[in-house]
């Protein structure tokens, strides 16, 4: 009962945050509107607790029906509002612009959301049903944010506040780069997908490291594992790729709890060739030699690899003692995309779900190395499919765009 109630409260809070995105296209700079929304749910919470204490003064408010009714109502109504009203309006605007508006909103409210989440968790004992220990790290729950959403580590406190069990920032490259020309992010609602050709746009390892170092000196550093996804700078020749990854890792290694070598994005020319055995062998050797603090090192692979190529990756992962594999990145198979929606780039969402699960199942049948499952998770059943295939953790991206924060609570309730 307690865990269920806390999840409903979290959904209600998160849905209000997401509902605020509706105002972004009207006035991107008006953070006053955003900040005005949060006290509404805060006052509702206090009212619920007061009512509860009046009904049963000696009882723990968490075990009474009043707050449950308030937050179940808030969660369900606002979840429907997001899917039926907010999302359709947002989907009328450029996808990347909406993303930036969302990030601005989360930057402003992230610390408040984080404080609320911490106050809430302090009232409860840790939940054995959701906690995980994977590659030596403790995760409050197994649902994480995939790389690509918070490329520059701008809103880490918000991800804790929204209920994620971990977050992966990046992809970060050694050199700052603007990425590919716009437009470069496209929704495909007919198949619940997204096509992106972002091209690792980010502020660069030095700038991100400085930002993380500043955040780490404050109480706002999240109380969950922070992963850092590393990629190759576009201007760096392929034969110098290992040195490029190495620069980023050495600059950031004291700041991340785990690291991911992204060699599978289709949006940097030649990057996927680093999945070939000789290149991957050299990359793993160089980075692990510099991994003097033994931080968990993972590799993110493409869903388009052949089974033989995946087996080559597994062999190298084991020989170089990497901590895990993320399966999978976006696909270059656009056969499910309507003709008028086709764009160059990687496809994510529902179309990659089945292949991602097949890859997870293939890997876990051949190795004990932990797998982080990502690709097409839009429901608790989709998450269960990944866990049943052998995934130790999962990550959300496209499903989170389409479903909103209610998706996290739905998955956690099903665990």
How are the strands of the biggest sheet laid out side by side? 3-4-7-8-9-10-12-13
Q: What's the β-strand tally?
A: 13
Low-confidence runs (pLDDT<50, min 5 residues)?
1-9, 15-45, 55-65
Q: Compute the separation of the termini in Å.
A: 14 Å
Number of domain units: 2
| String of helices and strands | HHHHEEEHEEEHEHEHEHEEHEHEHH
Radius of gyration: 21 Å
* Backbone shape: globular
CATH topology value of the largest domain:
TIM Barrel
**Helix run count:** 13
CATH superfamily of the largest domain: Aldolase class I
Walkthrough of the structure:
- It is a single chain.
- β9 (297-301), α9 and β10 (324-327) form a beta-alpha-beta unit.
- The protein has two domains: 1-125, no CATH class; 130-415, Aldolase class I (TIM Barrel), CATH 3.20.20.
- The chain has an eight-stranded parallel barrel, surrounded by four helices. The protein has a three-stranded antiparallel β-sheet with strand order 5-6-11, with no helix packed on it.
- The longest helix is centred in the first third of the chain and has 28 residues, at 95-122.
- The protein has 415 residues and is α/β, with parallel strands linked by helices.
- It has 13 helices and 13 strands.
């Amino acid at each position: 009962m307690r865990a269920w109630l806390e999840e409903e409260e979290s959904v209600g809070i998160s849905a209000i945050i997401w509902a605020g995105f509706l105002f972004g296209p009207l006035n991107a700079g008006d953070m006053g509107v955003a900040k005005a929304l949060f006290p509404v749910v805060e006052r509702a919470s206090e009212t619920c607790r007061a009512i509860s204490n009046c009904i049963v003064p000696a009882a723990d408010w968490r075990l009474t029906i009043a707050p449950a009714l308030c937050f179940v109502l808030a969660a369900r109504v606002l979840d429907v509002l997001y899917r039926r009203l907010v999302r359709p309006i947002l989907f009328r605007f450029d996808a990347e612009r909406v993303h930036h508006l969302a990030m601005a909103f989360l930057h402003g409210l992230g610390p408040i959301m984080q404080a609320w989440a911490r106050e809430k968790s302090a009232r409860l004992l840790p939940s054995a049903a959701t906690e995980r220990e994977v590659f030596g790290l403790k995760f409050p729950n197994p649902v994480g944010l995939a790389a690509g959403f918070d490329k520059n580590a701008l809103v880490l406190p918000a991800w804790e506040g929204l209920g994620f069990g971990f977050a992966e920032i990046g992809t970060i490259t050694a050199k700052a780069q603007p990425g590919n020309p716009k437009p470069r992010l496209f929704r495909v609602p007919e198949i619940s997908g997204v096509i992106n050709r972002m091209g690792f746009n980010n502020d660069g390892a030095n700038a991100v490291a400085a930002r993380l170092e500043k955040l780490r000196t404050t109480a706002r550093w999240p109380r969950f594992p922070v992963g850092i996804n590393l990629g190759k700078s576009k201007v760096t020749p392929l034969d110098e790729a290992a040195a490029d990854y190495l620069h980023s890792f050495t600059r950031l290694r004291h700041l991340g709890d785990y690291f991911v070598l992204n060699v599978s994005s289709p949006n940097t020319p030649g990057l996927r060739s680093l999945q070939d055995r000789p290149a991957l062998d050299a990359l793993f050797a160089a980075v692990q030699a510099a991994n003097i603090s033994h931080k968990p090192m993972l590799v993110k692979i493409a869903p388009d690899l052949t089974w033989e190529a995946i087996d080559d990756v597994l062999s190298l992962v084991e020989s170089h003692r990497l901590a895990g594999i993320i399966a999978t990145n976006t696909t270059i198979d656009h056969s499910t995309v309507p003709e008028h929606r086709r764009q160059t780039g990687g496809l994510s969402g529902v179309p990659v779900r089945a292949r991602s699960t097949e890859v997870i199942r293939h890997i876990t049948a051949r190795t004990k190395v932990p797998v982080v499952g990502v690709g097409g998770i839009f429901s608790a059943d989709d998450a269960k499919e990944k866990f049943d295939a052998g995934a130790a953790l999962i990550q959300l991206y496209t499903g989170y765009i389409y479903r909103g924060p209610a998706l996290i609570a739905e998955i956690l309730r099903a665990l």
